[in-house]
Amino acid sequence: MPNSALIDALATFLPVHRLLRQAAELAPYESDALTAFRSRPGAVVLAETQEEVVRVVELCHRHSVPFVARGSGTSLSGGSLPVAGGVVIALNRLNRIVHLDPQRRIAVVEPGVINLDVTKAAAPHGLYYAPDPSSQLICTIGGNVAFNSGGAHCLKYGMTANHVLGIKAVLPDGAVVQLGGDSLESVGPDLAGFFVGSEGLFGIALEITVRLLPRPELYRTVLAAYHSLAAAGDAVAQVVASGLLPGAMEIMDNLAIQAAEAAVHAGYPRDAAALLIVELEGERVQVEAEFAHLLQVVEASGPYEVRVAKDDADRARIWKGRKSAFSAVGRLSPDYIVQDGVVPRSRLGEALAAIQRLSAQHGLRVANVFHAGDGNLHPLILYSGRTPGELERAETLAGEILNLCIELGGSITGEHGVGVEKRAYMPAMFNPVDLAVMNELRLAIDPKELANRGKMLPDGDAPSLTHPGIHPLEQQGVISRA
Amino acid sequence: MQHAIPVDELGVQGRFMAEAVDACVHCGFCLATCPTYKVLGEEMDSPRGRIILMKEALEGSIDLAGALPYVDRCLGCMACVTACPSGVAYSHLLTPFRTLAELQRRRAPMNQVARTLVKETLPYPERFRAAVQAGRLGQLTRRLLPAELQGMLRMLPATLPPAAPLPEVYPAQGPQRARVALLAGCVQQVLAPEINWATLRVLARNGVETVIPRGQGCCGSLSLHIGEAEQAQMLARRNLAAFPTDVDAIVTNAAGCGSGMHEYPLLFAGEADLPQAQAFSHLVRDITVFLAELGLAPPDGLPEPITVAYHDACHLAHAQGVTAPPRQLLSAIPNLRLVEIPEGELCCGSAGTYNLEQPELAAQIGERKARNILSTGAQAIATGNIGCMTQIRTHLAALGRPLPVWHTIELLDAAYN
Lengths: 482, 417
Fold this sequence. Notes:
By secondary structure, chain A is of the alpha+beta class. Chain A folds into 3 domains: 4-90, 2-Layer Sandwich (Uridine Diphospho-n-acetylenolpyruvylglucosamine Reductase, domain 2); 103-214, Uridine Diphospho-n-acetylenolpyruvylglucosamine Reductase, domain 3 (2-Layer Sandwich), CATH 3.30.465; 218-407, FAD-linked oxidases, C-terminal domain (Vanillyl-alcohol Oxidase, Chain A, domain 3, 3-Layer(aba) Sandwich), CATH 3.40.462. Chain A is 33% helix and 19% strand. Chain A contains 16 helices and 18 strands. In chain A, helix 8 runs antiparallel to helix 12. The longest helix of chain A has 18 residues, at 390-407. With 417 residues, chain B is an alpha/beta fold. Chain B has 4 domains: 7-104, Orthogonal Bundle (Fumarate Reductase Iron-sulfur Protein, Chain B, domain 2), CATH 1.10.1060.10; 109-155, no CATH class; 169-293, Rossmann fold (3-Layer(aba) Sandwich); 299-415, AF0625-like (Rossmann fold), CATH 3.40.50.10700. Helix content of chain B is 52%, strand content 8%. Chain B is built from 23 helices and 9 strands. Chain B has helices at 11-23, 35-40, 47-59, 64-72, 79-83, 90-104, 109-121, 125-138, 147-155, 187-191, 193-205, 221-225, 229-242, 255-262, 264-267, 274-283, 287-294, 314-317, 324-331, 354-357, 359-374, 386-398, 408-415; strands spanning 169-170, 178-182, 208-211, 249-252, 284-286, 306-311, 336-339, 380-383, 405-407. In chain B, the strands form 2 sheets. A 5-stranded mixed sheet of chain B has the order 1-3-2-4-5. Chain B has a 4-stranded parallel sheet with strand order 7-6-8-9, with helices on both faces. In chain B, helix 22 (386-398) links the parallel strand 8 (380-383) and strand 9 (405-407). In chain B, helix 21 crosses helix 22 (386-398). The longest helix of chain B has 16 residues, at 359-374. Chain A binds chain B through residues 20, 22-25, 27-33, 35, 46, 72-74, 90, 92-93, 114, 135, 137-139, 260, 262-264, 324-331, 334-336, 385-386, 482, and chain B through 1-3, 22-29, 31-32, 41-44, 46, 48-49, 52-53, 56, 61-63, 66-67, 69-70, 84-88.
């Protein structure tokens, strides 16, 4: 139950329509984009100023009530899953672009600014914000920072961490700090880098200084269709070996192609077993030269069809299809688990073949759509929660895929974060000493474990996807899975 | 998304509602195009939030009364349907839910009076015309009336254009290329009868004979969208009986009507009228779709160069997926330069009776639309729905920039000498 003293304190400065307490106000905040987990918060605060966020955090600290920051609620790992009875601090109204300096190519934004809106604001100056998660039309910079979000074009430009210069943040005890600065040449340890990807455990970003890049002069987007997933995976290795560095290199398998086509009519070859999307971008002279080279490499990799985007509209359609693919898979199956494992690029073909084998073994369909260029897999495990036992089978399969990624020398997450979903796999990924150090750091910053409690770091009651039967947290009524 | 909606207790519509909930994956892509989410910035006033609320209300885990304020604030613009990658048929949830809610809810007395007035006048041209006349008298005593009725009076136009009765048949000019039946409409017929006349002239000029079936009436979509399914069925049945089906198309020049008539199969799901409703809705075309499919006779052009911003009516763009044909037709007009409106996917706030029921939000959304339109530097606006025309005129005027707002077909009409 929510702490009534805390609620009273919040009510002294928050009007009733921004301190949500009614069942109908709270229900829509129970989940983010990972609906397998639901949890009803005690209250949702719709913050409108940085000062309000600081006050709410201070009060939560004083009353020892856990809080979760939330932007647009698009996390695929349950990163903004509320703590039952805790406070959700909704930041989507905290969406001012405080400052944009085209000369210095930086923007200072509040956490609720939508990723694509940074690019929109920078566009008149010929600049853009490079990290492009598929949900960029709605996901917020605050969430991108917390989860070090990636995107198709992070192959060339790096993840969110590579684009954040400074962060003003409120720590879990209410102290406000400035980490990093406004240029790449900062003095001392990279504390902003330390904050990025901490999944909300170190507090809430109030202002983020991001880098802006000049918009590429020219894009060349190539689609190549293959008869097998492994052939497309091998093609990626060949492009990398050729020395080219495309802006993005993506693969979609047939299920993902079907879903995306149904959703946005992207014009993909529907019968392909695998589709490779490679995009070159940059200065005209260079892109034109690389394009000829790329076509040779791709043609030599055994595709049965190669297509080049005709114009900007065609290119936009190709990317819209790719970026809608996760959600579009909802057309194929009522439920699915999105995975985010990483394997070394050189072992992509091997990993994909193994996933197909596991899929057949468990009798569950797996759609694959992924950032091939950096080995970041996104198998979508399709199941129906209505069929008894299918969720458990899907979870077992998901666990085996993650273990496979670790065995191949990769990682359990590339960009979605550990969240609540992959906590149980942290011990497989890190040794006890690593985990102990992470925990010590967390406790040093947040001794009461109030900020985004229950995410990333495993503990005795970590929710586990492979746990047979009802989860301990479910038994305690802390979480529920619909 | 998983749910425990008691499908069997809810009849045929229950299945439609459950399927829509099933298809939602809660990804949030809909938030970016939802006008109420943009303005209010809270999850309850977003499409996926409303899906959760309707789901929980149907499951019985939250009170209907708690969910309704948020469901009521939905414009029904269906921008979320265009944005949704996983194919949620949102209207299949919203429309039946509103009908269901209407049976259970208790409205405040004056709210009920206002609603009954809307429901019993707007769909009937003669009553609406009489109401406008009476309403002008009411202006004098406006301050004595409850807020709900004051709002309605404010929306009434100061004068009504004279209405010449439409003929039963309007012949094609030159060799006949097609024959269509025209839905004359209800509100539009009273507020802007010239749109129907422009439609007849443009169709004739394109070699199309138009019949205007006697005995037809309101298409029922206004009733359907406010949860009055029974009235909607009654009105729809009248049109099913009145319209011939041996025509090439049943043409409408109102986006809302086109959208509603495409929903007839949903309205009559599980009923004896279903086959007839399907045949009817199969023939329904927006005027711009029909002309684009037919192939437009080249217009002569406008006398002066003009820059026109095209506004996507939600019930065309989102509910029917029609965005290219009107642009294609307007682009064919010599001397007309077409420009796009920023945030073009956002509703203007008119949305049927929305500006009567949610005046404050409708005004905020309307002003946002007007500002976006002005940012294009356009000299005039073209759109395909009478509600949008009225709303956009109001908000441009409020900003002191009363640009002309035309129906797409009026511009085409003007472009034929």
